[in-house]
Design brief:
Blueprint: E1 2-6, E2 10-16, E3 19-26, H1 28-36, E4 41-48, H2 54-57, E5 65-72, E6 78-84, E7 91-97, E8 117-120, H3 125-133, E9 140-144, H4 147-152, H5 154-161, E10 166-170, H6 171-178, H7 183-191, E11 197-201, E12 207-211, E13 214-218, H8 232-247, H9 252-269, H10 276-280, H11 283-297
Parallel strand pairs: 1-4, 1-8, 2-6, 4-5, 8-9, 9-10, 10-11
Antiparallel strand pairs: 2-3, 6-7, 11-12, 12-13
This protein binds adenosine monophosphate.
Residues 8, 10, 12, 26-28, 80, 96, 122, 148, 230-234 line the site of adenosine monophosphate.
């Protein structure tokens, strides 16, 4: 079992009400890979610059993360800077320096082509398809995107969506993509574009899972202290895809468990800056919180007349 992820590996500069962090390890592929590696083997695809040394690489080492597909290119590593509002529910991008990411052409090592599941992290949609085409016969393809591509590469994005089974997207992006302010109608329209399974993330308010005629409402795990929500979406995706890969099943019940597992891992991510908490996390802590989560969302139905 293995999951392949393609996405950004970054230096992030972050400002949240809890403080500021300068040029720390981030990027969608980093968060995803660290999260998913608690469940399965991860084949990572991305690019870093020559300012990304052994110290940064060590975050991924000693884990179930294959780094053969992490390219080292001359130049600087992608840098993103973001600032959060006081309630942490919105953030402003201060700068995006693409650097080596600008000319990134993902080329998969031979050993990655047999990956069982695929996660196309937030990169330009035609690059997402390039990666998809290099994998032999993935059993499940998940995908993320953002408003940048919805606004500037819509036709390319639609071609990618036609080829993926699972789309993870936040609620404002879903509204934009569908051109409909109502999330339920937006979900129907997006599913008609290709992804049979749609997960709409609503930050601290949880996530909605749409499949065929069913909808599953998952709350987010209530946290008393949130330091930095950066990467919560990618950690959610890593927990979800990792859990699905470990389970080897894609039925509705497993998807619902996977959404709760994604929310569980994402909650840990928010407890500290950057990937810090994902580096120290223990399996026992994940299991304990998953079970606590299950008991929080459980209720006994009264016999209805
Ligand atoms: P999330 O908080 O889950 O949306 O993910 C945040 C991560 O996305 C940060 O670590 C950034 O480095 C990365 N990121 C931000 N903008 C972009 C972009 N345009 N392309 C790729 N990755 C990005």
């Amino acid at each position: 079992m293995s999951v392949l992820v393609v996405g950004s590996v970054a230096y992030d500069t972050l400002e949240t009400p809890a403080g500021r962090a300068e040029k720390i390890l981030g990027g969608s592929a980093s968060y995803f890979a660290l999260a998913a590696s608690y469940f399965t083997d991860v084949n990572m695809v991305g690019v870093v610059g020559d300012d990304f040394g052994p110290e940064q690489m060590s975050a991924f080492e000693g884990r179930r993360i294959n780094l053969e597909g992490l390219e080292h290119a001359p130049g600087k590593t992608f840098h993103w800077q973001g600032k959060y509002s006081t309630d942490l529910n919105s953030r402003e991008t201060i700068c995006t320096d693409l650097n080596v990411f600008e000319h990134f052409k993902p080329k998969l090592p031979e050993s990655y082509r047999k990956s069982d599941r695929l996660f196309l992290g937030n990169i330009e949609p035609s690059l997402q398809r390039d990666v998809l085409e290099q994998v032999d016969a993935p059993q499940l393809v998940g995908c993320d995107t953002m408003n940048l591509w919805i606004n500037h590469r819509l036709e390319e994005l639609k071609k990618t969506l036609a080829k993926v089974e699972v789309l993870l997207i936040n609620d404002s992006e879903a509204r934009e993509l569908a051109g409909d302010w109502n999330v339920i109608r937006a979900a129907r329209k997006i599913r008609a574009m290709g992804p049979k399974t749609l997960i709409i993330k609503k930050g601290e308010h949880g996530a909605l899972l749409f499949q065929e005629d069913s909808c599953f409402l998952a709350s987010a795990f209530p946290l008393e202290h949130v330091k930095d929500p950066t990467g919560a979406g990618d950690s959610f995706a890593g927990g979800l895809m990792g859990y699905l890969d470990q389970s080897g099943s894609h039925d509705e019940a497993t998807f619902r468990q996977a959404v709760i597992m994604g929310s569980t891992v994402a909650s840990f991510c928010c407890e500290d800056f950057g990937v810090e908490r994902l580096l120290t996390l223990k399996q026992d802590e994940i299991h304990e919180r998953f079970h606590e989560f299950a008991s929080m969302v459980h209720f006994d139905r009264l016999p209805l007349k």
